[in-house]
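Q: What changes when zinc ion is included in the input?
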Amino acid sequence: MLNRRQFVFVAAGTAALSRIPQVFGAAPAKYDLLIKGGRVIDPSRKINAIQDVAISGGRIGAVQANIAGDAAETIDARGKLVVPGLIDIHTHAGRLPEGPKLILGDGVTGFIDAGSQGADRITEVVNVVKSAPQPGRVLINIGRAGILPEGDTMDIKRADVTAAREAIMQNRDIIAGVKARLSRDVAGMNDYEVLRRAQEVASSFNLPVMIHMGQTISPLSKLFPLLKRGDVVTHMFAPPPNSIIDDNDHILPEVLEARRRGVWFDLGNGRTGHLRWDVAERILKANFLPDTFSTDWSIEARTTQVFDFPNVMSKFLMLGMPLDKVIACATANASRTFKIFNGRGTLNVGAPADVAVLELREGNFEFVDNFENKRTGRQRLFPVATVLAGKKVASHT
Ligand SMILES: [Zn+2]
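A: The predicted holo structure follows.
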């Protein structure tokens, strides 16, 4: 006869074989990584609550309060925000080899290099993006010499359809669209023809076009009809001439029409001519909210105006956008713009485990627009930790 204690032991050893290692404390951890006690904000599922995020095998395993079970590694996120990894659809991170790694430390787990290079030197940026730690894609500048101080397509011959097509054919896996910069100091009188050629290239591959709007010579009523579903308008808050809002605070009909047919509107913070507080305020007040935020990041922008993606997002907290909407512009909304991001920008169970841990600090923070206008905000988001494909990466703050 077994006594009671022996019986329990035998039962554990036969009926629950799979649990034996745990009984003896030698089990592998249930999760690879556990992010504990943070405020989870996941607009893709309308979640805003104190929860844990458990990760295993590079995927989100569970998101709920007080997740039990051990983990190989834990991030204490109490007092912090836990959001899907940030997606920045307008950067120039491909211009330098360390670019992608630098923005990864800011919480950016997916990015687009938007037109840093054209056909002539596209392999330079393609190679940087290919070796990036996080998923990234390239938009090819329709100007074959890329970004030029004298203007990418001031000489219309540089908008070379054949050269761009060949470059895309050789890099189909990395080039995800065409960039057309249309400002008067970039394209001059050629803005319409440059956009027409960009669409000609894109249509051969069924790719989107991103236009850089603002201070164009042609009015938007001439340019916007060329935009198709899935295209992106960046620098949407650019001041006149040819802003998206008129002097009577009405959003232009061609702008509303473009949004109705599925054109995305993106911030594109940058440093010159794109963002002015009063214009942004009027556009937000007209209830024309951005679909996506982006930094227009470059190494130069790292020390002025832009700094990092969470700082750019903070400007819109200052302008009165609710936190959930601000997070959505950098996550769920951005995940819909380019195919590579589909299924990302979410903490859904089973999704790739890309996570940004941010801190929302209260205080007085100075923000500067592209015209040296300073404003003080009461909150600023700071990057604290980044998780990419389930692994914590080095952060620089
Ligand atoms: Zn740019």
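Observations recorded in class: Residues 90, 92, 114, 296 surround zinc ion (CB under 6 Å).
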